[in-house]
Amino acid sequence: MSETPDWKQKYRDSLLEMESEEKRWRQIEQALRRLVGRLCAAGMGVDPQLDDELKVLAAANRRNAAAEELEQLAASLTTVVVAVDAVSPVAVSPSVAPRIVRWDSTCAAVGGVLQHLNAADPEDSTAEQLLARLPLAASDAALAAIVVQAADLIHELVESFARERLNSAAVLSQVTLRLEEMAGYLTTTGEAARTGFEDSACVNDTVISQVRELSAEVDSATELSVLQSLVSARLEAVTRQVLDFRAREEARKEEQAGRTERMYARIVDLEREAQELHSKLDREKHVARHDPLTRLANRKSFDERFAEEILHRSLSDVPVAMLLWDIDDFKAINDSYGHRAGDRVLQTVAACFVSGLRAEDFVARIGGEEFVVLMRGLTPEIALRIANELRAAVAALRFHFRATPVRVTVSCGLTELRQGDATGAAFDRADAALYRAKREGKNLCIAA
Hints:
Layout: H1 4-42, H2 48-62, H3 67-87, H4 97-120, H5 126-133, H6 140-220, H7 224-288, H8 299-315, E1 320-327, H9 330-337, H10 339-356, E2 362-365, E3 370-376, H11 380-395, E4 399-401, E5 404-406, E6 410-416, H12 423-439, E7 445-447
Parallel strand pairs: 6-7
Antiparallel strand pairs: 1-3, 1-6, 2-3, 4-5
């Protein structure tokens, strides 16, 4: 029972984490809705009928319309776009080239959001389906429809976090109620013990008083019959007092036994609930800090480990190497063979990293095809040698998609953590080295 405050604190921490996650997804949802509005504005002026549809969609987006209404508007918009394109196809001129660049950037941004959504809930295939549709989006309306559905997914995810937070608060309230019941039991037991003690003292005083009065009467009695009568009356009074006390004591014992039995059942239930809460909290903590696809640590877990390594680095001279990895030409694999093939590559590369590292090394997936490794106690030279071994192990993997052999390689940028390093500064150094590796031909490991 002494661990109960720890459970309460852990659930408070869990609630704070869910609130933070909910806030982050709401921000992403708002960003996507702003993106829908801008895409609607960008598509204006092509055709009057299309302009009307875009205005309606933009208005619905501004007032945060429900998913069903947005789905209907997206379907209607798609129909109009197809009709307009069939009558007067839009010709692409050289002056439109800058817009194509922005279009690619927008698709890349939406793809990143969808990958995060897919990782957040891998059991829901909606995000994966939207990812498959994204390369086929050939118009503002088609992309807007995907963004609207992504916003709806984010909204559902935020609502899920809110429900989970309410459930956790309800569980915490139940634990508090059980603790209050136990406190009431202990208070009642203490009061019963004090009442029994006071009753016992009262009986003791009564018996002593009766004995003293009897002694005084015996001294003053002159006849044997009178003395016998006095002794009998006093003994009867004492006997009655003792019997009444014993009856009250038996009643108290029975009541106490009943309370103890009921509280024991409550304690058994509380222990069972505490074990269930402990298991649930461990599962939630694991899910919150691990990537569901590769089962590696995620970005949040990496940030925590990075802070630990910086603190350890400031207290000792033990070197810490950070390796930033990126799968070469990963987008081409997704585009050519589908996202399931990309997922298989991510899982296999992650397993290859884990098998080639020490047990104490830390490896995490921090982005779509980006991984990071923290290695304590190794000089940059040794860390670079191990990085090249990992790179060669990945290059030796054999992948076949649609009966076609596909070669997968990785590039790496390496840096040594410095005392007082910030995550951004270390990442910049490693990322610069990674960029050099990409620029110089890929399938390379370069130290910053």
